[in-house]
Structures are given as structure tokens and as C-alpha cells.
């Protein structure tokens, strides 16, 4: 892009796709914004009217709002912690030369290919069910009272299920990062007298900093919108115990038919996601120099 | 405080025998250069001494202590790698202090040693920069700094200058030699560049296919190569080898004449040849000549030698400077 002429030509050429992408984003956002200021309930057609901030007031004062916000943060934070720490550990393990390494790696990555509803149902019926589930059977084998995971520790169970799905992604990214670590640096550290732990904290972890931020960023984007796993396992319950912001918007729109209130919730969720994104970007700015 | 002895050291990678058995003694304070073509096992030998590879059989002694099974860090050696292997996320100061920190040295002592190393290597202004912000030569110096702060009993260099440009390489060569003169610590240096070997070494070890071909001082190797391989490897440009009738006349299978040992004349000489390329360096002139019998040789003439391509010249090997080799390539 050397000359002015080339630059303006280039702008002209990319313009159609930029315009298309912009519309792609702005039309749904604009419609959501519009609906959020309307009294718009599917059970009362033809009664739409402008209500100002009424929908927002109702959504924010909904008894489920604060608890769902809290649930969302706990869920995202918990999954991030498990996948990052577990991902690093598994990546280091499968980076070791072992027999059948290729197969082990495929097995480790496999959960990522299972669709969310299926994996959630597998967990629900085959692991966490107190009667038929594997975990219940194991407790009974030891003579203990089986735990009904989804009603006794519902949010924790959701965190476990979603972590299981996202661990392979984190592991994969961390594995590539591990393999790009210069072996001469490792040897130099070895000569310098650094033990395994010192090499990990002084060399491996800083080297993986970038990969860790990438994993946190990408996972956060997807985890804020976790929905299918909640729908097929707990339906947001018991009570509000596993209702996240996404799930609350869903109940507003499709269980209470309140499109206006759901739109207001959606806008609030967008604002919250942007706040999170802002902090993440600052974090990334520090690691990417 | 840094005598290294190798006793029948062997190294195999699976089926492949890389080093079939090496005996070598490195005296304390010596500057020893391992030199050989790529793949000759010189780096492997260095890594065996460092402890980064396990020996298959044999013994490595440092100051009479058997270190064969010891971890690299406990051998008291420091190594400078080809890629410098600096820690990219640490400042120069922290890079240099890293081995001291790992050894649990008090902060004050660490700072004192880093400051001294920075002074020796002129790294003062760069201590707070990251390796990524330094030039190749500066990075090299940081790597050396990280080695010297530990006050090791010997330094190991693995082709440290091969990533530098030609001018810088000459400078660093001199700097490393000066460092050796100041510290008087044993240094083991691996290179494929025979010029580096000749200029820096007290003792050169010429390796081929994992075997030691010859050990000796640079001039020993230059004047008394034991075989054709060493004769061809040491000296730049390479020695010219002539076989056939020319060699038979002197009762050898092959004779070798160094480029600088030709007497060049326009009027008379033993062999006649045609100049194909002339390289004028100012201080020397290298003449690439195709002889009448088809052999291609290089002759060096000091100073300027005005010549045109295609000109015919007469050449005579200087008497007493002709190397003779038998069928096995051994010097006669």
C-alpha cells in the first residue's frame, strides 16, 4: 500500500464487506435496543407501546437478576480456573514422550467434538444421576449415600460439565505453546541450576503467558453465553441456583413471552460483556508487548 | 581448577553410534577448540561434557572427580549456546543474575557480581533492557555474562559466533580470547570454522565422524598434519591435493601443497596451468588455476599479482613444504 492511489483503491475494495459486517452487527443490536424500550409481550399482541426505561427497571429489580449475575461470574471464573490450570497440567503431561502419544492426544481432544447438549445429557444421566449414574454407583459401592449432584451442588455440576468440554481447547493451545519453547533455553536453565519447578515458573509459565491470555479471552466470550448445558440439566434451578444472565433472558423471552423485558436484559448483558472485555483487553495489552 | 578428562567416552543414539570412543585430556586453563565438519559429533561431545546428554559408556572426570552421572548444574560448568538461549521475558540484569538466584546467593552478592560482569563485558547501559531489544553481539555478551558470574571451573561454547555477521565475529573472537587471558579459566569451544580454531585455540581437537583425528597446537596441526583429512581441514584456502603421476614421482599416493607454498612464475616451473579466476584482496591474490593434467588448484600470492583470466602460469611447489600421503591418507 505504497501510494495514496493504492490506498484509496484498497479502501474501495474492502468497503462492501465492511458495510455488510457493520449491518450484520448493527441491525440486530438496533432492533434489540428498540424492543427494549417497548412494552412488547407476545401474549398481548397489538398492545405495543413505548415505555421508556420501564423494561430496564423491571429486569434490574427482578429477584433473579443479581443472583443470576453472581452465578454467571462464579460459573465463568470457575470454568476458567479449572481449564487454565488443568489445561496446563494436561498439556505438560501429554507433551512427555510416551507410548501411543498420538492416540492419547486424540482422546484428550475428543470432548471438544461432542455437542454441548449431548455431553450435558451424558453427564446428567450417566455420571451424576444418583440412581443410575456412575458416581452414585461408586458411592454405593463404598457404602456411602449417593450425591444427587444436580440438585445438591447444581452450579458446581454445571461448572464441571462445561469445564470438561473446554479443557481440550485449553490443552491444545497450551500444548502448541509448550512445543514452541526453545529447547536451548531449557537446557541453559538446566545448566544454570534451575530445578523442575524453577524452570516451570521462570521459563515455561512466562513463555505461555500469551497462550494463557488468548485462552482466557476466547473462553470468556463463549462461557458468558453458556445455555444448552443449563437447559438440558437443571433448567436454571433448583430455584435460581443455576440461572445465569443468558438463561434469565431466555426465561423472560420464551417462558414469559416478554420480548421487551428480554431485550432490556440482552442489552444489560451486552454492557456487562463489554465491561469484562475491557478488563480482558487491558490484561492482554500487558502481556502482548 | 578446570581439568577435564574423558575416558573412552561413547555415545549412541539408538542404533547410531555418534561417538565411538573418545579419550581426551583438557588441562586446567587451556583454551581447547573442537573443530570438524558438521555432523562430526563435536557438539555432542560438548553436550556430554556439559551433562545435557548422558554418556552411553565411559567416564568424564572434572578435576579428578567422576561427574559422569551428575546433573549439569552440579558439574560447575557454564555454557554459551549458539542461539544465546537468553530468557526473553527477563531483563539483562535478571538474565545474568539467574544462575546466582538459583544457587540461592544473597541479593547483595548477586548485584556485586552482575555489576562486575557488566563492567567486563561493557553491558552497563543495557542492564534494564530485554534481550529482544539488543543486537546480536550484545546478546552474545549477555550470554557470556550469564556464564561468567557463576565463576565456573570451565566454560563451554557451542558455536557461539555462527549467528553473527562477519565483522562482529572477528571482534567477538578477539573479545573471547581477551576474556580467556583475563580469567585464565578452562574454555572448551566448538566450531566448524577452522579460522576461529586457529586464532583462538591453545589446543585444537580435530574430529571426524566422532573420532579424534588429531590433537595439537594450531601450528602443529598446520605444519604436521597426521593425515590428509586434517591437512585439508586446517588452513584457508584448503590445501591442494594432487594424485596420479605427479604424486607417484615423489613416491606418494597423494601429495598436498598449501596455496601459500606455490612458487608462481611466468617463465618456468614444474607444472603449467591456466588462470580461471583471480581474487584480488589487496593483501593477497588468490589464483584459481586449472593445470594441464586437469587438476584444479588454488595458489596464493602475497600482495598484488597482476594477471588476466586465461593467462598461463608456471607453478612449482616449494621444496620442503610438500606433504605426502599414502593410500590410507596417512602422512608419510
TrEMBL record, chain A:
The chain crosses the membrane at residues 12-37, 73-94, 106-123, 155-175, 211-233, 253-280. Residues 69-280 form the ABC transmembrane type-1 domain. PROSITE patterns: ABC_TM1. It is found in: Cell membrane. It is a multi-pass membrane protein. Keywords: Cell membrane, Membrane, Transmembrane, Transmembrane helix, Transport. One of its GO terms (biological process) is transmembrane transport. It comes from the Bacteria. Its main location: membrane. One of its GO terms (cellular component) is plasma membrane. It holds the Pfam family BPD_transp_1. InterPro entries: ABC_transporter_permease, MetI-like, MetI-like_sf. Belongs to the binding-protein-dependent transport system permease family. PANTHER family: ABC TRANSPORTER PERMEASE PROTEIN. This is Sugar ABC transporter permease. The lineage of its organism: Bacteria, Pseudomonadati, Pseudomonadota, Alphaproteobacteria, Rhodobacterales.
TrEMBL record, chain B:
Gene3D superfamilies: 2.40.50.100, Nucleic acid-binding proteins, P-loop containing nucleotide triphosphate hydrolases. Signal peptide: none annotated. One of its GO terms (molecular function) is ATP binding. Keywords: ATP-binding, Nucleotide-binding, Transport. InterPro entries: AAA+_ATPase (IPR003593), ABC_transporter-like_ATP-bd (IPR003439), ABC_transporter-like_CS (IPR017871), ABC_transpr_MalK-like (IPR015855), ABC_transpr_MalK/UgpC-like (IPR047641), Mo/tungstate-bd_C_term_dom (IPR008995), NA-bd_OB-fold (IPR012340), P-loop_NTPase (IPR027417). Residues 4-234 form the ABC transporter domain. SUPFAM superfamilies: MOP-like, P-loop containing nucleoside triphosphate hydrolases. It holds the Pfam family TOBE_2. GO terms for cellular component: ATP-binding cassette (ABC) transporter complex, substrate-binding subunit-containing; maltose transport complex. Belongs to the ABC transporter superfamily. This is ABC transporter ATP-binding protein. It comes from Paenirhodobacter populi. The lineage of its organism: Bacteria, Pseudomonadati, Pseudomonadota, Alphaproteobacteria, Rhodobacterales.
Amino acid at each position: 500500500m505504497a501510494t495514496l492511489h493504492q490506498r484509496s483503491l484498497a479502501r474501495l475494495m474492502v468497503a462492501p464487506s465492511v458495510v455488510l459486517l457493520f449491518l450484520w452487527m448493527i441491525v440486530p443490536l438496533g432492533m434489540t435496543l428498540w424492543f427494549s424500550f417497548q412494552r412488547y409481550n407476545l401474549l398481548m399482541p397489538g398492545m405495543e407501546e413505548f415505555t421508556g426505561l420501564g423494561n430496564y427497571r423491571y429486569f434490574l429489580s427482578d429477584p433473579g437478576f443479581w443472583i443470576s449475575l453472581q452465578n454467571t461470574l462464579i460459573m465463568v471464573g470457575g470454568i476458567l480456573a479449572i481449564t487454565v490450570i488443568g489445561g496446563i497440567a494436561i498439556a505438560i503431561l501429554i507433551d512427555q514422550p510416551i507410548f501411543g502419544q498420538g492416540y492419547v492426544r486424540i482422546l484428550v481432544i475428543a470432548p471438544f467434538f461432542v455437542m454441548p447438549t449431548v455431553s450435558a445429557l451424558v453427564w446428567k444421566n450417566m455420571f451424576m444421576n444418583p440412581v443410575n449414574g456412575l458416581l452414585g454407583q461408586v458411592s454405593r459401592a463404598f457404602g456411602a449415600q449417593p450425591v444427587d449432584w444436580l440438585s445438591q451442588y447444581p452450579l458446581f455440576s454445571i461448572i464441571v460439565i462445561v469445564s470438561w468440554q473446554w479443557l481440550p481447547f485449553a490443552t491444545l493451545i497450551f500444548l502448541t505453546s509448550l512445543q514452541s519453547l526453545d529447547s536451548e533455553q531449557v537446557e541453559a536453565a538446566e545448566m544454570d541450576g534451575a530445578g523442575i519447578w524453577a524452570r516451570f515458573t521462570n521459563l515455561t509459565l512466562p513463555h505461555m503467558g500469551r497462550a494463557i491470555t488468548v485462552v482466557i479471552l476466547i473462553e470468556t466470550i463463549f462461557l458468558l453465553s453458556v445455555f444448552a448445558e443449563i437447559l438440558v440439566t437443571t433448567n436454571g434451578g433448583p430455584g435460581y441456583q443455576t440461572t445465569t444472565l443468558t438463561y434469565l433472558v431466555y426465561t423472560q423471552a420464551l417462558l414469559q413471552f416478554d420480548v421487551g423485558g428480554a431485550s432490556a436484559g440482552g442489552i444489560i448483558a451486552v454492557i456487562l460483556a463489554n465491561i469484562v472485555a475491557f478488563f480482558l483487553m487491558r490484561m492482554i495489552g500487558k502481556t502482548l508487548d | 581448577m578446570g581439568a577435564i578428562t574423558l575416558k573412552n567416552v561413547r555415545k549412541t543414539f539408538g542404533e547410531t553410534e555418534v561417538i565411538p570412543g573418545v579419550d581426551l585430556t583438557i588441562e586446567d586453563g587451556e583454551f581447547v577448540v573442537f573443530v570438524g565438519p558438521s555432523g562430526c559429533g563435536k557438539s555432542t561431545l560438548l553436550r556430554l561434557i556439559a551433562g545435557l546428554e548422558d554418556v552411553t559408556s565411559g567416564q568424564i572426570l572434572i578435576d579428578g572427580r567422576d561427574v559422569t552421572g551428575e546433573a549439569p548444574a552440579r558439574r560447575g560448568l557454564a555454557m554459551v549456546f549458539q542461539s544465546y538461549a537468553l530468557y526473553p521475558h527477563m531483563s539483562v540484569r535478571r538474565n545474568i543474575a539467574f544462575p546466582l538466584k538459583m544457587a540461592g546467593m544473597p541479593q547483595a552478592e548477586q548485584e556485586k557480581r552482575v555489576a562486575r560482569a557488566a563492567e567486563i563485558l561493557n553491558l552497563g547501559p543495557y542492564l534494564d533492557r530485554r534481550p529482544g531489544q539488543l543486537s546480536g553481539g550484545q546478546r552474545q555478551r549477555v550470554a557470556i555474562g550469564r556464564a561468567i558470574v557463576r565463576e565456573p571451573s570451565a566454560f563451554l561454547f557451542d558455536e557461539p559466533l555462527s549467528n553473527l555477521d562477519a565483522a562482529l565475529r572477528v571482534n567477538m573472537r578477539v573479545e573471547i580470547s581477551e576474556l580467556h587471558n583475563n580469567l585464565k579459566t578452562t574454555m572448551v569451544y566448538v566450531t566448524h570454522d577452522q579460522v576461529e580454531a586457529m586464532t583462538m585455540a591453545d589446543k585444537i581437537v580435530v574430529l571426524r565422524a566422532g573420532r579424534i583425528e588429531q590433537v595439537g597446537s594450531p601450528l602443529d596441526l598446520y605444519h604436521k598434519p597426521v593425515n590428509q583429512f586434517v591437512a585439508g581441514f586446517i588452513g584457508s584456502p584448503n590445501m591442494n591435493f594432487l594424485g596420479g603421476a605427479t604424486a607417484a614421482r615423489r613416491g606418494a599416493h597423494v601429495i598436498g601443497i598449501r596455496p601459500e607454498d606455490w612458487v608462481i612464475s611466468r617463465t618456468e616451473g614444474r607444472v603449467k596451468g591456466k588462470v580461471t579466476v583471480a581474487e584480488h584482496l589487496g593483501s593477497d591474490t588468490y589464483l584459481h588455476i586449472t593445470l594441464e593434467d586437469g587438476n584444479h588448484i588454488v595458489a596464493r600470492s602475497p600482495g598484488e599479482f597482476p594477471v588476466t583470466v586465461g593467462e598461463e602460469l608456471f607453478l612449482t611447489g616449494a621444496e620442503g613444504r610438500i606433504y605426502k600421503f599414502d593410500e590410507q591418507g596417512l602422512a608419510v
